[in-house]
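Friendly challenge for the regulars: who can give me the structure tokens for this chain first? No prize, just bragging rights.
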Amino acid sequence: MHHQHGRLRLDLIDTSMQAINHFNLRTFDLNLLLAFDALMQELSVTRAAARLKIRQPAMSHALANLRTLFDDALFIRTGHVMQATARAKALHAALHPLLLQMQEALAAKARFDPASETRTFRLGINGQAEAIIVPALVAHLGQHAPGIRIQSIPIAEQAFHVLLNDDRIDLMIAHASDDLGWLRREKLYREQYVCCFNPSLLACSTPITADEYFAAVHGLVSADMDLSGFLAYMLRHAAAQLQVTHSSHNVMTLLAMAAQSPLIASLHGRVAARHAAAFGLAISPLPFDVDDLEVDMIWHPRSDNDPALDWFRALVRSCVP
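First reply, four minutes later:
Bragging rights claimed.
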């Protein structure tokens, strides 16, 4: 924006977005453009003031400022009628459509149509929850939202705060034991633990007894470098130590191990209910009491009013069996 002899030359403004000089533009009272538009609509200071719900002296002051800024009388009184000058008409022809666009942009609400949109949602989720939720998600998308893709990202509990804050994932599904601070949390479902084994390789009763359970070799799902994994939560209730000899980050691998080896796989009940039969495994409750595991849906508050992520969160809720 340029000044000439103390006057603001709006006709010299480069209106391309890349060339906006925000520092200089802030020195101009944009409310004057509303006053100018009202004056052009009403051709009366009194009626323009009423239109903007301000007092007539305030509108007269705005008109004086406009005349100074544009270096033009803008409106000339002829008898009892106020007429716009050629400069005012030219300015209004350029400015009125812009004001309408601003009004529409401010009033518009973002919309999301999953049937026609193309987008990838980044879902932070680990093995067992993924086996429960993602197949149903993909089935729904294939039928109703073919342009939507899901990227499953395995995540340690300690990392998702950073990834959500840095906008590297859109949504997290996990059991979160710590205070989440600024993050949003919604309980998605409660999970029970069960165990699976191949009855042709392990002569265990159903339901399994505590002696049979603790005498057997165990496999588990673990995303960590040690052999605790999801069983760390469960083992707080166990009466004895388990012989954990095998772990995998993939729950399907764990079920395959149990199908081919004389070991017990302890895992989430929903996973076992859906997949154990395909591996020829028997399902049994655990022989000791275990608190249900709460699985949460976690997101950053910046996405609270994002219609796309609102839709995605609702879809995730609907896909929990």
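Residues 193-291 form a domain with the D-Maltodextrin-Binding Protein; domain 2 fold (CATH 3.40.190.10). The mean pLDDT is 84. Your move, everyone else.
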